[in-house]
Amino acid sequence: MSSFDLLREQGYQRLGTLLSREQCEQLRGLYDQSGHFRSRIEMARYRFGRGEYQYFAYPLPPDVERLRVALYRDLAPIGREWMRELGLQADYPDDLAGFLRLCHAAGQNRPTPLVLRYRAGDYNALHQDLYGDVVFPFQVICCLSEPEREFTGGELLLVEQQPRAQSVGRAIRLAQGEAVVITTRYRPARGTRGIYRTNYRHGVSPVETGERFTLGIIFHDAE
User: Fold this and answer.
1) Structural fold of domain 5-218
2) Cβ contact 209:111 at 8 Å
3) What is the pTM of this model?
4) Residue 67 pLDDT > 80, yes or no?
5) Rg (Cα) of the chain, in Å, rounded?
C-alpha cells in the first residue's frame, strides 16, 4: 500500500507537521521584507477574492527549498502513475532540478512558492494554480499561523467536480506548521467502467477574526 493512498482516494492528504512554530514565524517575518519576493498580488484587483500574497524570488528561503525538493521527490512517482492512468502525456523526472529544467525550457522561469496573508473578511475564490503548459499534478499548503489563537475561520476549501454528478466540497482546518498535499487540477478515480477524471479547485473560506498566513509550495515555475 502506498503511503499516499488517501491522496488517491480523495484528492488530498494531510502530511502532518512539517514546520516548527519557530520556522513558521521566521517565514511570516519575511513577508514585509520585499527583497525576498518577486511580486505581490492584491486579490481583489483581479477578482481572485480578498487578501494578498507574494511569490518568492530565487533563491528560495532554505526551509522552502528543502521542502520543495523533498516533497517533489516523494510525489513524482505518484504523478507519473496518475498521468499513465489518465492516458495523458507528462514527464516528471525523479528530482526537482530535472523537472525545473523542463519548466525553463518551456519558458516557465519564475518561481511559484508563495506566502498568502488573510485578515478579517479576506478569502480566496475557488481556483487552480496553473502557470503554463508544464504543470505538476500536486501542490502543498502549510499553515503558518495558529488557528483559534491568531485567527478564526479561513478553512482550506476543496471542491471536486464529478462527471454527471453533483460536486463534492470539503473544508480542511490545518494546525500551525501542518501541511496538506492536494491535487493541482484533477485525479483519476475508479468507476464501474474503469478510470475517469474528476476536476478539483481549491480556495479559502472567509477569515472571521485575526490574521492568517499560509505557505504554498507549487512545484512548476511560471511563465
Assistant:
1) Jelly Rolls (2.60.120)
2) no
3) 0.95
4) yes
5) 17
